[in-house]
Amino acid sequence: TQLPDRSLNHRVVKILNTASADDTYYARFKADNGTSGGGYWEEFIAPDVSPGLTASTMPHELVNTGTNALTFRQATYTARLVGDDTTNSHPSFVGKKIQQAFFHSSRLGFLVDDNVSLSQANEFFNFYHVS
Predict the structure, then answer these.
(1) 50-107: per-residue pLDDT in tens?
(2) C-beta of residue 86 within 8 angstroms of C-beta of residue 24
(3) What is the 3-state secondary structure (H, E, C) of the chain?
């Protein structure tokens, strides 16, 4: 409620709710005219963190592209859109060897060591929080 209702387009600010890093978040201004002036704030990713997973090092997909035609290609994984490494950390499989992959209740899952990582429901390639 203390953010201005007018600012420069794409201005990013860090919101510190308390002394704890667990409730800190980032917001980006979206100007109505695309330059500056009136607009609104939306939750955003921290400017100094990785946007997410590297598709070339992640599991690929085999897609039926026509009659008797299959294509093996990199999957398009959803980038991390909000937060930082504390509030929206990488999934537990990052940097480790994925042992198994599975689908369960409209979610893609990976098993690594003793951890299970599941995608967002109905968004198979999104392993990050959306807000």
Answers:
(1) 999 999 999 999 999 999 999 999 999 999 999 998 889 999 999 999 999 999 999 9
(2) yes
(3) CCCCCEEECCCEEEECCCCCHHHCEEEEEEECCCCEEEEEEEEEECCCCCCCCCHHHCCEEEEEEECCEEEEEECCCCCCCCECCCCCCCCCCCCCCCCEEEEECCEEEEEECCEEEECECCECCCCCCCC
- Token pair for 87: 């509030």
Residue 31 in tokens: 């100007």
Q: Which amino acid is at 112?
A: V
Query: Could you tell me the two tokens for 102?
Result: 């599975």
